[in-house]
Automatic annotation (TrEMBL):
The keyword Lyase does not apply. Keywords: Pyridoxal phosphate. InterPro entries: DegT/StrS_aminotransferase (IPR000653), PyrdxlP-dep_Trfase (IPR015424), PyrdxlP-dep_Trfase_major (IPR015421), PyrdxlP-dep_Trfase_small (IPR015422). This is Lipopolysaccharide biosynthesis protein RfbH. Gene3D superfamilies: Aspartate Aminotransferase, domain 1 (3.90.1150.10), Type I PLP-dependent aspartate aminotransferase-like (Major domain) (3.40.640.10). It holds the Pfam family DegT_DnrJ_EryC1. Belongs to the DegT/DnrJ/EryC1 family. Its cofactor is pyridoxal 5'-phosphate. GO terms for molecular function: pyridoxal phosphate binding; transaminase activity. GO terms for biological process: polysaccharide biosynthetic process.
Amino acid sequence: NLVAFMTLTSHKLGDRAIAKGDEVIAVAAGFPTTVNPIVQFGAVPVFVDVDLKTHNVNADLIEAAITPKTKAIMLAHTLGNPYNLEKVKALCDKYNLWLIEDCCDALGAEYKGKHVGTFGDIATCSFYPAHHITMGEGGAVFTNNSKLKIIAESFRDWGRDCYCEPGCENTCGKRFDQKFGGLPYGYDHKYTYSHLGYNLKISDIQAACGLAQLKRLPDFIEKRNSNFDYLRERLSTVLDFVEFTEPTKNSKPSWFGFPITIKENAVMRRADLIKYLEQNKIGTRLLFAGNLTKQPYFKDIDYRIVGDLVNTDITMNQTFWIGIYPGLCQEQLDYVAEKFEEFFWI
């Protein structure tokens, strides 16, 4: 996410470059790393509320948040469930905004027959060990814009201006025949830096792991989705007490987890259910930061909220999720369901 966002701050993008103080629309119900690059650069996140059925941005609230200072929309597909890309992309086109798709939990998900990550100007994917595929760590940036590709590679590679592939030199034929900044004419282009960049390259071993994992991705996705569907049916016995997420209309999720929200009228508390599940060796996770604006580190950060964050707060207080790892078998999923039923005295 850092590389993708910083790419859109490059001076090479002219007036479309995101500048310090510009606004980027996001949601507070998610993982910090979708928002942190905005803050770290000095732009201002503008939060709108989410839809409780999908746990994604409520796309109907976005237009009211757009101002002359808005430069981009940066959103994650929550737990593998695509957000309404049709509405979000239409707003980006209407107001000439960048769209950054965070696909860290949604590799392989589709919206209207197209993969997520192919709608935005730039998109990201994570290879953290728990995600759909892994290289041990790291991630990827996607774009079909050749200019953004070169800029993203520059930020990844120390900010270097040279775009030669590894092992190649002087592919432009002008390595010692150009003038940049205050450097002397002919200064080696290989050691000319046009961005304040990073060293975020993966190793060959990581790449080999990723290529091997890609071959297994279709099976991983199929099993995750199968586990999701099985749990949804098997846990229907507890629907008096909890609500399950719904796939976004016109989407084919690539589920990362199984979100559960305790109903407001339920007498049981989320904390009690989570403790019971953990005591029975069933791991749980909250929906990441819940409401980022309530996190300790956000205390002195400059941000803006449009409307209210009622559903974000419900997510913070009442939602959690359980895993659907492709290695889980039916016996294990039945065990999970049985423990839910025991807790709710069913």
